Amino acid sequence: MSTLLSLSRKAVRAICLLLLAALIVTPLLQIVMRGIFNVPMSGAEELARYFLICLSFIGASYVTLEGGQIRMEEFQALIPPTPRWLLQMGIELCGVVVFAIFFVASVVTILNNLRNQTPTLEMPFWLFMGPLALGAALLAVETIAAMLHTWRRKRPEEKHTVLS
Fold first, then answer.
1. Is the pTM of this model over 0.85?
2. Which of 61, 93, 132, 151 has an alpha carbon within 20 to 30 A of 83's alpha carbon?
3. Using CA atoms, how far apart are residues 99 and 55, in angstroms rounded to an integer?
4. 159: DSSP letter
């Protein structure tokens, strides 16, 4: 199980790097095509926006893994250890529930719109909504992993904000 999770984390990181490169290259190509060749790329802005959406939803699980989400650790540090552990468990449980709801809602939306497509890029709707479903599923998995880690430790996570 940990091998599968490790493999999926590496895949998410590689996909995010590719999406970031595509997000940078698409507007650059649009500028070159318009400025040098006087031939604008049709739909380049929408495609760059789609890459940003994909990067945000898919990359959110990697951010969660690395502890990059906003935690308000300064306030949590004021709470004694046992209530802080309960608070962290509650937060992680709420996260799992919310991400599971996002996942189910996005899958239902995709299934209800299988024959539709986006107006500008004429992209199939399932492809447009797919990053939300995938990102929500990945976030639920990473949040479950964090919750299990906190549960096994039987004590709250220590403050580890890094400012550089």
1. yes
2. 61
3. 17
4. P
Average pLDDT of the chain to the nearest whole number: 91
Q: Which of 49, 72, 57, 36 is nearest to 106 (CA)?
A: 57
Q: Which amino acid is at 63?
A: V
Q: What pLDDT, in 10s, does the model give residues 103-158?
A: 999 999 999 999 999 887 889 999 999 999 999 999 999 999 999 999 999 988 87
Could you give the CA distance from residue 126 to residue 46 in angstroms, rounded to a whole number? 16
How many CA atoms are closer than 13 Å to the CA of 111, on its beta-carbon side? Answer: 6
- Residue position matching structure tokens 């004021």: 78
Q: Is 3 exposed, middle or buried (0-12, 13-18, 19+ CB in 10 A)?
A: exposed
Alpha-carbon torsion, ordered 3, 59, 142, 160, to 10 deg: 110
Amino acid at 118: T
**Share above pLDDT 70 across residues of the chain, in percent, rounded to a whole number:** 96
Helices (H), the chain: 2-35, 44-65, 73-76, 81-112, 125-153
